[in-house]
Amino acid sequence: MKIAISGKGGVGKTTLSAFLVRWFADQGKSVLAIDADPDANLGHALGIKEASGITPISQMRELVAERTESVPGTYGGFFKLNPRVDDLPEKLSVRQGDNIRLMVMGGVKKGGTGCVCPESVLLKNLVQHLILRRDEVVILDMEAGIEHLGRGTSKYVDWLVTVVEPGRRSVETAARIKELAKDIGLTRIGLVGNKVRNDQDRAFLRKVLSGQLILGFIPYDDQIIEADLDAKFAEDVSAATRAALEKITKNLVEASEAAGL
Fold it and tell me: Using CA atoms, how far apart are residues 156 and 169, in angstroms rounded to an integer?
């Protein structure tokens, strides 16, 4: 399965990404965890001790120059649009246990309407390879703009899961993500409500997300916040939180089976 997780900053998409990575790994699957958010917190959420020392691929100037035959940080000029990337998952990933590997993409600073630069070309080609060519579970912790996805790869992503918290700004971001996903051909979209305090929060999200596939709700849990502060995996969540996360994952798997994936 290839699953991209998106949502407004701070809604809990990295927490959900980390749980999915651990869940599939516990099922004996080989999992490639991709941190495609410029804030790069997935390594901490997974409890990888050396996460702070990982250099994002977008900042590896020599690598970008070698693969794209360009000078990183420059705009205009000529560079390769199809750089070799197939060897990078093995070379640049950090292992956790037997079944998990982490890659950190990093972000590309850009202004105006976008960036067609060596760094972005390398990242997009890498994401395309991971989605199209890798025979393993791939979990992508995305930035809200799903910038690393494009028309050439989006139809091969099994799911785009958007995390939403009870609040207007979060819901508006989810709506923008839905439109972006539609523009690039992503059709399988699931939503997860997070930081849900009570039945009123659930009712609010059900109302504003009416007609969309809601995979489940994660209750507000102080242990998730504590784990984030300590840069470790949220192991000691409440029984209700763990049950909610398990249900969301199982709903995702069942929806995939129903879709023939």
Answer: 29
